Amino acid sequence: MEAALVWGGIGALCFVVIIESAAMLSYNRALKLFQEAREGASGANLFTADQAMALVVRKPTPGTVKIGPTEHETYEWNWFSFFKIYRIKIIVAPQNREVLEVRTGTDIFAEDRAKSE
Most buried residue among 6, 65, 78, 100 by CB atoms closer than 10 A? Predict the structure, then answer.
């Protein structure tokens, strides 16, 4: 019985490590791809929302945010984690679908808290 509990605990710990590692690696890869794409965009070669969505395998959650008088589309990706916030949100220009801003986990979390207060 004791051995089963020990091996069950080891198995649960391995499961948590695998979940956390997968989330961190996938999030870091997506963030790096976004940063490289934004740095490579210039002039007529814009980094668009369609390009951003092609870079990440998972489907984003669409939304909107009002910045000044203009309504902007947003797309948000979330990675499940037990301990950290792995989120990326892009804000898109309404005219040409250019990615105006890339926000990450703690920035988005602070926004959500400010909205709920």
Answer: 78
